[in-house]
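Backbones bend. To wit:
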Amino acid sequence: MKCVVVLACGLADEPIADLGGRTPLEAARTPNLDAMAARGILGLTRTVPRRIPPGCNVGGLSVLGYDPTQYGVGAAALEALGLGVALAPDDIALRANLVTIDVTEDGTEILHDPLGGRLPAAEAAEVARYLANALGGGEIELVPGVGHRQVLVWHGGERSVQTVSPYELVDKPVAAARPTGPRSQALLGVMERSRAALDSHPICAARRSRAERVPTALWPWEPARVGTLPPMRDTFGVDGSIVAGAPLGHGIGIAAGLEPIHVPGATADLDTNLTGKVEAVLRSLGERDLVVLHVGAADVAGHAGDAQRKIGAIERLDEQVMGPLLEGLRRRESDWRILVAADHATACATRMHTAEPAPFVVYTSRDEGKPRGQKRGCSEKDAREQGIFIQEGYSLLERLLRH
């Protein structure tokens, strides 16, 4: 039995007035996902338990079978792991966004874009490398990531430092939201030095000359220490691999004991190499019984507050991932199963994650032979009204592998 998990980061959303009260998933054209929902198992599941802040680390690990109330690894530590950084026990990793901070006429600094102008992947990589050199090593070093998201490693850092997510600050003053608490001056110093470095970078200067939004600062948040998890091999008796574009996606898989597969051009955004990722999944199935495919473009669009971009990301997922993936699975002689699950919802209206139950679809080779399906599609609404509800999202993978 071959199993594929498509971990669709931020796939779900809330109803949006401009979409006629529909979510982006409802509004998107998704014939492949709809056919799977009609013939397979459609439902909602709680990937993020109540009283736990919703995050990709929580929901992602939940989909991979880890009970969030028992196991937890901070997102920054997972991103560092996905970037190949081995954190020491006394190191602190922090997520660090390239952000755009503008100054109003009265001198108030406002965070206008938590994605720093959404630089193209190549430009973002060049800016991140420049920043890493400008900030230097020493106590705090920058590890270039993908797109707007970088990682800071604070050697011997202070875990109790208090930070605020940039997504909570959109169009709000930043003065009171800067890092505070023990040794926070070290982070404040990095932030100020990043502003000077970005102000003089040629890419930023060129974009400003064209009246385009540019990253103006580095914003650190969510400190985390290194963490460990029991390998999936020990829990489920299966060897697997993970294909991802975002370092966080690879970090989630590596922490779970999966072999990371890197695909050229995979960026975790709309410009990602989806064809290459699907080909990598199908190749890996020749050697592994479980392959996880992490896709993150819908989450990025949600954080940008761009519903139309999110619809486009979902339609690309359906056309360029689900279509070719299903065709590849159909060519296999062995039985197969596929789980498509959102790790959480990312609301375009607030640009924040939410902890509401997320939709999932299970589809198997046996479902292919069904003469007709139910009249439902892959959406939050149909999952809620016609599907099943599984309270513990972390039980999904075991159900997929065992039943």
